[in-house]
Amino acid sequence: MSLVTSFDNQSAERFWPRPVSPKAAPPKSRRHRTLWISDIHLGSRGCKAEALCDFLRSNDCDLLYLVGDIVDGWQLSQRWYWPESHKAVIDEILRMSQSGTRVIFIPGNHDEVFRDYVGFCFAGVELADEAIHETADGRRLLVLHGDRFDGVVTNARWLARAGDWAHAWAVRANDLVAAARRGLGMPYWSLSRWLKDHVKDAVEFIGRFEDAVAEEAQRRGVDGVVCGHIHKAEIRQIGDIIYCNDGDWVESCTALTEDNAGYLAIVQWNSGSLEIPVRKAAFADAAE
Ligand SMILES: [Mn+2]
Fold first, then answer.
1. How many whole angstroms from 37 Cα to the centroid of ligand 1?
2. For residue 242, how far is its CA from the centre of ligand 1 (angstroms)?
């Protein structure tokens, strides 16, 4: 008994110091009921960690879903890359968890090492294979990363890996093109965005992926589904299912948000301001 009582909170903190001091947190400017983010790829060069830090510091939520590929274990296993800004993202998520945000982490294929710990809770972060989210207006959304549909879509795991490698290079090439255009005073233009929209196979892959995910949601008897994995933010009706993809933080810097009325929207973080691009769908309207 004495052993237990002597291990109080103070000594626990000595062994596991809090990542950041609470006084450093300024008031957040926006509140959401729920936030979904995924495909951050911490540990890879393409990761837009500064933008995400900025986003998390100015956006608050009751419930935060980390929908997979938060850490890029594939990249890290080849070459260790962990700059301060990547650590800061983890710190910010832990700070949110400590200030009352419920955090649910659904590992993806790039951070599949965490799948062994599903059902556990670390530093207030709950690990799950998938989740059922109930919106403020009572609809049920299946939340999963989405890589399990690669097989259905392509039928080959090596192809997914190859695609991943090609994507990593497209993102790098994209950064180079963007820097060159900036230097020439030209507006931002995304190469990998253009590839995704114009290369026939990519368009076909995305369509088939979205259909497969929606089909699974239909089979499970839920109203909608939230996933990540393909780095393409989306919110649209597929049959009876509302399909949401929260996008990524390698390129698009997008999140899915829910407000207190159950209204769902894709938001894009653009140099410190929150933009709501083309699609903003009232869940209730869209599902009726
Ligand atoms: Mn993935």
1. 12
2. 20
Query: What is the CATH classification number for the domain harbouring 77?
Result: 3.60.21.10
State the Cα–Cα distance between residues 205 and 208, nearest whole angstrom.
5
| pLDDT tens-place values along the chain, 288 residues long | 334 434 444 444 444 445 555 455 566 779 999 999 999 999 999 999 999 999 999 999 999 999 999 999 988 999 999 999 999 999 999 999 999 999 999 999 999 999 999 999 999 999 999 999 999 999 999 999 999 998 766 654 555 555 566 666 777 777 777 778 777 777 776 766 666 666 667 777 888 899 999 999 999 999 999 999 999 999 999 999 999 999 999 989 999 999 999 999 999 998 778 787 644 444 444 433
14: in domain: no
**CA of residue 5 to ligand 1 center, whole Å:** 43
CA of 26 to the centre of ligand 1 (A): 32
DSSP string, 119-132: T-EETTEEE-S-EE
Those residues with Cβ within 8 angstroms of residue 17's Cβ, 6 or more apart along the chain or in another chain:
none
Domain extent for 38: 31-287
Residue 80 Cα to ligand 1 middle (Å): 19
DSSP 160-173: HHHHHHHHHHHHHH
How remote is the CA of residue 36 from the centroid of ligand 1, in Å? 15
Is the pTM of the predicted complex or chain greater than 0.90? Answer: no
Q: 107 C-alpha to center of ligand 1: Å?
A: 9
